[in-house]
Amino acid sequence: MRKKILIVDDEPNIVMTLEYTFKKQNFEVFIGRDGSEAIHILENNIPDVVLLDIMMPNVDGYQTLEIIKKSERLKHTKVVFLTAKNKASDIEKGLKLGADRYITKPFSVKKIVSEIQELLS
Amino acid sequence: MSNYTLFFIIVCYLAFLFYIAFLAEKNAKSKWTNNPYIYTLSLAVYCSAWTYYGSIGIAANSGINFLPIYLGPIIALPVWIIIMRRVIRISNQHKISSIADFISLRYGNNRFLGALITFVCVVGTVPYISLQLKAISETFEIMSHDNSYIASGIYDDSTLYIAVLLAIFATFFGTQKTDASEKHRGIVASVALESILKLVFFLIIGVYITFYLFDGTQDIYSQVSKLPDFDRLTKLNSIEDGFTWLFMISLSFMAIFLLPRQFQVSVVENNREKHLKKAIWLFPLYLLLFNIFVIFIAWGGTLTFGNTVNAEYFTLLLPLENGNVFLALLVFLGGFSAVISMVVVSTLALSTMVSNNLVIPYGFLDKFSKGDPERNNKYIKNIRRISIFSIIILAYLFYVNFSIQLSLYSIGLISFVIIAQMAPAFFLGLFWNRGSSKAAIIGIISGFLITVYTLILPFTLEAYTGTKDFEMYGLFGIELLKPHALFGIDFLSPPAHAFFWSLLCNLFCYLTFSLISKGNYRERNYAEMFVDQKNYAALQDNVLVWRGEAYVSDIKSVLNKFLGVPRTERALNLFFMKYKLPKDTQMADARLINFSEKLLTGCIGSASAKILIAGAVKEEEISLVEVLKILEESKEAFSKNKMLHEKSNELTNLTNQLKTANSALIEKDRQKDEFLDTVAHELKTPLTGIRAATELLIDDEDDMPPEIKAQFLKNMLQDSERLSRLINDILYFEKLATNRKELDFQTNSIQLTINKAINSISQIALKRSVKIINNSIEEKLLKYDEDRILQVLTNLLSNALKFCAPDKGEITVTTSTVNGFVEVSVHDNGKSIPKEDFKYIFDKFYQSQNQNTIKPEGSGLGLAISKQIIEKHGGEIWAKNNKKHGVTFVFKLPIN
């Protein structure tokens, strides 16, 4: 079965590269341009992994993660933070909130792919 | 008016005063009884019957000579405030209850000196009280039309009964507490009330005589100036008269400090030092008011009666002569008020002295040290009560035997001269630390003896022998020893003469013996303390130098005998707490000795306190040099301590300042971190896009469809543009914020600048079909940096473009002049700004969520930069929501 990935970021240029990459890896790709769009998508879909930016308008990455963690339906969904916030304290906070991986921007496309595959295997 | 009616009125009036005193005693803590007015009015106890009746006699018989007695205190008052402040402080610290206690403490708790002062005060005051009784008796007789002055026997003399009533009053309110340094609110309140009444009644009669019986001051003057001895009555007639004036003024100057009743009201009854400030103008005013009508009443009386009646009672006789009994009664009650306050306060002061400085230290110490506290307290109170009665009886007897022949005025002056003998010991003792007890004693005795010889003996002998031989020819007929012209000085009035010689001798003895004898160490200790009060007051109980062996338990048992066990415990606990000593301290130190003496002083006087405590401890003699050394050391220690304290305060202040500065720095640091974080984040975003796209283009070059390849390349270009725009804005903003960007002020037309700004964005506006309306037509010339303002305008206009309604967008620019500023507003018809965002929109990197574009195009610094620019021009920038839809950004620039 094709794996499902939800990409949540408010930067269309970044989203575009990720979408291209994961489609090529044979993922079913969903796009959310901020937290609220992501939550809307999650209501009807259960992705295997969510690639989540933190600093976004309206509903930010932390709030989105919290909602995912609360949902019984989404308990098998992995969450990976993909953010420019690279301070040790930020990383610690992200993992503490329950993110499975924490990748900082700017990122290497190859590295993201290998991390996600490792996470889902 | 009959004898009985008058007596009945007197009793009613006394009952009223009793009631007032009772109320005041009950509300001892209330503001009504503790205010500067009550204090100042109580000082007016100075104006006794002597003032009320006597001055008029003097004014009628010898002209303006009544004035010095009031000029003295008025002149003295500025000095009085300064000295009294010091005296009150010392007295409060040491629980001093009379002038005898005060002077005896200054000379090292000297028992004999205290007793001597008491004796002088009694001798000086008893005639004075008898003067008051004489006034009562004579006015009573005038009021009741009784022609025989002297009653047939003591028992049917109303004066005696009135005297007894006054004694009861003084006893009741004066001896409620054993501690004589406690305040007597009841007595003070009634004295204050009496002071008001006597002044008001005196002014009423003054107005009545001057303006009703006569036709104003002018009328009295023109009538009296026709009398043969007018000149004598209105002028100082010679240089000799001038000297008499000088001495009289000095005499009353001293009296205001030294009279026992004045000391009682001004020092013992003072409960707030600041009350002195009110007295400085109110008391002289009171005295002046009292003297306004004196001369007119005297002249009016002289014009009416000639020399046929006693001029002292013109105030009663004039209304009676004109049939106005009610007014005469008022005057009588005013005089009676003056009498009551003087008699009550004087006997209270004297009884404290007699008990604490004479009877107890000489007769009752042994008895007290064996008795229990309740019995001791009863004894002390009874001694005071008996003293009060004895003094009044003594005054009555003096009145019966002597006063009848003497005028009010001359009795008053005799008292003043006797009291003045304390002046050198009192005044010099406060300022000269060499003044010794021996010198004080010799000075007072010698001055007193001279007063007796020159002033008291002549009239006493005259009263007994009926001849004036002694006065006319001197002792043993020696010319130089004539009592009123000692050593040939014959031009002064007898009181001035006595005052001159006695005080001269007194002062000479005081100075000489002070220089010869050194006094013991205790004396020197207190001398230092009184003279350098400012420095030593701070040392508190440390001020007493004492060395020896003493057990706390011994001292405690002495205290128990007077204060009772519970009060002693309480006091000692406070003491131990104050000096942080353990409660079971065994050995007493100098501080405890001093503290205990103070505790006892109020009850039994300072001399007795010293003797009793000394009996309980084993004291070692310390040399005078050592005392001074120890005092100097503790003074130094104290000032060092004070300095350390000040330094420590300074340091605390500095620390606080540093803390504030530090927290401000921390906040700045946090803001800087936050700024850097945001900058980093903003920079990384386009960088991430570029990096990811580049990686894909390199790795996937062959598989990637060309249209995607083209899109990625386009994205990369967009991101790099964004990156460079960001870097430029950040650097520019930083330059503005740190004042490294200089503005180029030139005179420009704001309309031209607006046009330029609109032109620069018109292409984009056209593309988005947004209409720009320029409403600013009027030409306005201002001084500003055009490039910068252009930047602001472009920023506002492009913001407006971003937020405009998508299809029928409309932007309006207007200018107006408001209060010396030109206001430029940019108005759009897009969405409104959420209320909570208003305070953030000018912050760095704030991005509104309401933009039409999906991702904000700007750096997030546009408005922050605009704000900086406008503020650097001395203007303001703000935003507001429009009534219907859209937002208006407004900035204003000063015209000058």
TrEMBL record, chain A:
InterPro entries: Bact_response_regulator, CheY-like_superfamily, Sig_transdc_resp-reg_receiver. Gene3D superfamilies: 3.40.50.2300. The keyword Phosphoprotein applies. It comes from the Bacteria. The keyword Phosphoprotein applies. GO terms for biological process: phosphorelay signal transduction system. Residues 4-120 form the Response regulatory domain. The modification 4-aspartylphosphate is found at D53. This is Response regulator receiver domain-containing protein. It comes from Ulvibacter litoralis.
Automatic annotation (TrEMBL), chain B:
It is found in: Membrane. Its main location: membrane. Keywords: Coiled coil, Kinase, Membrane, Phosphoprotein, Transferase, Transmembrane, Transmembrane helix, Two-component regulatory system. It catalyses: ATP + protein L-histidine = ADP + protein N-phospho-L-histidine. The chain crosses the membrane at residues 6-24, 36-53, 65-83, 112-131, 158-175, 196-214, 242-259, 280-305, 325-350, 383-402, 408-432, 439-461, 498-516. Residues 644-671 form a coiled coil. It comes from the Bacteria. It is an enzyme of class 2 (transferase). PROSITE patterns: HIS_KIN, NA_SOLUT_SYMP_3. Its EC number is 2.7.13.3. Residues 678-896 form the Histidine kinase domain. It is a multi-pass membrane protein. GO terms for molecular function: phosphorelay sensor kinase activity; transmembrane transporter activity. Belongs to the sodium:solute symporter (SSF) (TC 2.A.21) family. PANTHER family: HYBRID SIGNAL TRANSDUCTION HISTIDINE KINASE C, TWO-COMPONENT HISTIDINE KINASE. This is histidine kinase. The lineage of its organism: Bacteria, Pseudomonadati, Bacteroidota, Flavobacteriia, Flavobacteriales.
